[in-house]
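Blackboard transcription, Thursday session:
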Amino acid sequence: MSLKRNVVSIVVLLVVAAVSTALAGEKNAPPSQKIPKGAKVFVAPIEGGYDTYLKDAIAKKKVPVEIVASRDQADYEITGTSESQKASTAKKVILGNWHSREEASITVSNIKSSEVVWAYSVHEEASTHGKKSSAEACAKHLKEAIENQ
Amino acid sequence: MHSRQLSVFPVLAALILCLAIYPLPARSSTSQESNSNQDQNKGADTGKPAPNDQAKVPVSNIKSAPTDEGQLATVNNAKIPSYSKVYVGPIAGGFENYIIAGLRNKKVPLTVVIDRTKADYEISGVSDSEKAGWAKMLFIGSQNSNEQASIKISDLKTGAVIFGYSVHKTNSVRGKQSAGEACAKHIKQIVLE
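(Written on the board underneath:)
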């Protein structure tokens, strides 16, 4: 009888230890940073209409995600910022460069868990195709991130 | 006489160019980064706390970590547990996105969240970007911008600022991206892996 009681108490202690260890580990567990193929993604408005370029680039580069028009329907959200500076007269005259300077940074976050799962920034000092180039760079790297998981 | 004038002209041009370029190496060397705690700016800058603040902030609280770019300072050797949830607050010019991208690029073991209520720590700061002017293009032939940013990390539970860092990059090749990555690189030094 006492042996049975001891076994039960040991089992209970082991269970408690396992649960507490799991809970302790859960607090700072590495996030599951994965964007599944075919995930529904909402592209939030970005200044300068950069979200439009991004949507086009995602389609052009065949990124395996589904763009949705409403945030409520989406699993992931793309937010970001972009800055474009047209070539100044000095740049044209002195450096002989007509191309614009493009900077952009985007973040993909899981709407349910609020975790940022992917982020990327691009800087092009003389962008041949302006915002289109930088948006396609973002899309290309997003595609790589999804496919190389 | 004519040939003498011809020889003087290039010398004068070279002299003007030298005068224009001379101060740059001293102040730039492409990047200058420094790090200090917000509460201890004076102490971190001078290596000693201000006399009035001596009682509040002992200098021993500032712990230096190895870095080749500047002095890294944290309060009480503060560390952030790996995969802690961090919220990056909005920064002018969307610089928070560059910090998040930098954290990912530098593989900093933190979990960035977009909901402040779910976070343990908050990163906030300011940033400023100065585009290359015509004079810079003419005299130096550089079209790179000057970037500066300053961030701080605060513990949302206690409200204490545990880390501060500022970066200044003259002729930043990759603009805000470089500044964001510099911030991320130094944040990594206080994250327990």
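Lecturer's comment: DSSP finds six helices and ten strands in chain B.
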